[in-house]
Amino acid sequence: MEIIETTTLQQQSMSSKFKRICVFCGSSQGKKTSYQVAAIDLGNELVSRNIDLVYGGGSIGLMGLISQAVHDGGRHVIGVIPKTLMRPEASVSQGFCSSDEYIIALSTVCLLTGETVGEVKAVADMHQRKAEMAKHSDAFIALPGGYGTLEELLEVITWAQLGIHDKPVGLLNVDGYYNSLLSFIDKAVEEGFISPSARNIIVSAPTAKELVKKLEEYVPCHERVASKLSWEIEQLGHSQNHDISR
Length: 246
What we know:
Helix content is 48%, strand content 13%. The chain is an alpha/beta fold.
């Protein structure tokens, strides 16, 4: 009985308000080992808190490290990937390309993405990819990454500023990787391009444990361009499939 009670208490202590967290990260591992370690640590932190992962699909770079860590830990992984970047076996079976064309396409795709672990959601394009990732997530975290990671990060920050969602957004600032970006944001606030309240949309921390804790404690306090309800009504008028405010 004591063992059962102890286990139950441990499970309760590691529970989270989040069911799924979307992680933005690159198909490169970066030059520092610390970036790779941080990706695995974040994956393990999600597992310890019983949080599932939503990410951009693939097994290359930091994307592969975190997805494998979460998958190996027994949590659900959802990879959202454009059809263009998926393995092209279907194109051969349906007669859309020859075997030679398949080999070339497969080589190109594997260099870009690799295999996706867990559940795969195929989408039409990059915009739908971001909308689908946001729809299935309760919070967002950016690991170190390049153009794609920054683009995804800044878009969900903008969506929060507009009032489309009120989900927390965090930077895993490994070895100060995002210091320059945070300085830029502070400069934009200083120069009047970002409001002081909108600066609070994004939180950062150097470790996964600290960052997830901050996201758990996050309370939206920024001014919104429009109400979340108005965005939801507009989205219902177009398509319920891309409702990122859920």
